[in-house]
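User: Predict the structure for this protein chain, please.
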Amino acid sequence: MLTRLNHNQNVVSRYDHKKGQAKNERHSDRYVRDDHKHSQDANRLRDFARSQGRVPKNEAPHQMGGELFRDFPNREGYQADFLGVDLPLPRLDPELEAQAAPLKDDPSSHELKYTHFSVIQHKERRTPLLTAVNVDGAQYVEHERDGKWVFDSRIERKYQLGNEAYSNNSFDKGHMVRRRDPMWGPDAGKGQDDTFVYTNAALQHSDLNQKNWLDLENHVLNGAINEHKKVTVFTGPVLQEDDPKFNNKGKINPPTQTPRAFYKVAVEADGKGGLQGAAYVMHQDDLINQESKGQHHIELTNFDQFRVTIKQLEDMTHIHFGDIQEAPKGK
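Assistant: Here is the predicted structure, written as structure tokens:
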């Protein structure tokens, strides 16, 4: 049986790698709701940036039907050899692969490539079923949170949930690849910008996204930064057939379903020519129909309570993550 959320944990300070001192990082990575119409402002910002020569024409957002889209050209995406041991993009069971959204230019492909990460989108649920990001803690570069949510023009709009799913409710646009994970190396800024795409967002209750889930994200990233190591992270919702229907008061047509849990797998080289990883699952089924409480959160220090075996996760998700040995507890 999988463990549900537990708020009775100890407080832990966060570590700022750039400044080398403890600080609370919660506010810098907190979801910022964006319910207002921003297309005119976004266009003005785009045109100004173009005039200053900062944004190439093919990188700037463009409007289609009053919504903002980006093309994300020349992205390399997830790198299988990143850890020094080949780790291909996880394999989907055939029935699940049939639900993956195809690319317009190559219907045989489902991989959306971004800077340092890739996404496979579920075409009916209109949410990522798998994200894969390469994290280089030794090259981490801090950037202030800055990004406008856009659609990916490489797949059909009908396969993507937009702000119609996130307005006037307690769900955040939950980054599956957190904005800071691809924020390393010369393309750190581009990595952050690329995470603000609806194919990287899932219906995640704010009391999970901004609390325990954020603690888990920081646990993984801070470990990579502090130890100057490379980590590959797989993240997504645990999609079940009986997940509750959701239409956000008629705004989502056709309705979607709300995931009741999310997974994360952190993988690193084991120093013996192989790979080791830790899989985690956090639930939000007790939160889905609740308003955000916004109460004080005690930060987590122990994540073993959320650990599942990689085999258990594969059975839950119908995704096969590769030849990864179980990491010791506490990793």
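Residues 137 and 211 are 23 Å apart (CA to CA).
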